[in-house]
């Protein structure tokens, strides 16, 4: 029988020696028709099913749910579908950024080949620029059906999160409980800096939303029980046991049984541990049920067998690699991590949460005037961002991981360096182009915002 101690032991069991810590990337993107810029439907050879089938030519193996093709698997990677057909690469965990880059470049090459063959486009934005929520063609997965029914009960934008958002997520390992605590605190506290710098979702419903990331706004109104800032992470005594208790208190979505998901939305995981759910009388959860439940916690950073950083909008390839480099330099070099922790020393959960709620409208152009008092030891958001960037660069220098040509991992930071130097996030660039070059029409965006 599963109890809190066993759940604690499961997290402890994922601790790794430093030399075995890896980097993983999960990249989501929208697929659309080049002909009319409409989003691809799920069904048929001209839809998402057809794209998945075509990807099999590259060695991917099909994954089905109740007879429908809903994903692909590789040796250590997978391609899955988000609720309205957003395509997600869950990449292989790599020991360095060079492996990450090679895999993502190959993924883009495969998609580019299919794009020419099938007449489709691949859009790397955090939020659908023009497609209505009501027009979404939902993927036939039982888990998503359950979430669709549940989301309107807990937030006003949960369905928008499911149907119209895309993210870039990064995975990092931890070595011990203390190491997890430091990395979690740092990732949670510093996440707003790169969320502003790499905001990439200024449009919604065919118009300028006036925000730099409408996706950031949507997540604030999705489900307060499982999204946003996790305050206890900032405590000095935070540990695995605290996270287990928090996770057990988050309402469930479902459990997988007989090839489909059983609706348990809103039910208590603690009740299931006691065998008290009337849908499953006397049945207690399996370890897989627990792993699935951890995947339903959607804070800006979440803990499972690794730390998953979830705050950023979907980005094009070069910026995706820059973000991965930023966090690798901070989290996987001890000296950089210690110095970055000094930058967030005294970070107050209430002030961090307030900053998080301001993020959707913040841009880099005014970042030198944005106060971060109570969050960072810096005079402004820009100063904190520049300090964190410099520490990440130094961390990558000390890692000294080079590819076959001798290129250091610091090379991947250059696109982010340029953005910080120009004080111009992707969202601010798109907005400027819409006003100055595209005459208020978003059609050009589909040519320029591709993955």
Automatic annotation (TrEMBL):
Record bears the keyword Phosphoprotein: no
One Pfam family per UniProt: GCS2
GO molecular function annotations of the record: ATP binding; glutamate-cysteine ligase activity
GO biological process: glutathione biosynthetic process
Catalytic activity: L-cysteine + L-glutamate + ATP = gamma-L-glutamyl-L-cysteine + ADP + phosphate + H(+)
Keyword entries, A-Z: ATP-binding, Ligase, Nucleotide-binding
Keyword Oxidoreductase (UniProt): no
InterPro entries, alphabetized: GCL_bact_plant (IPR035434), GCS2 (IPR006336), Gln_synth/guanido_kin_cat_dom (IPR014746)
EC number annotated for this UniProt entry: 6.3.2.2
Family: Belongs to the glutamate--cysteine ligase type 2 family. EgtA subfamily.
Described purpose of this protein according to its UniProt entry: Catalyzes the synthesis of gamma-glutamylcysteine (gamma-GC).
PANTHER family: GLUTAMATE--CYSTEINE LIGASE, CHLOROPLASTIC
Protein name: Glutamate--cysteine ligase
Organism field: Halomonas fontilapidosi
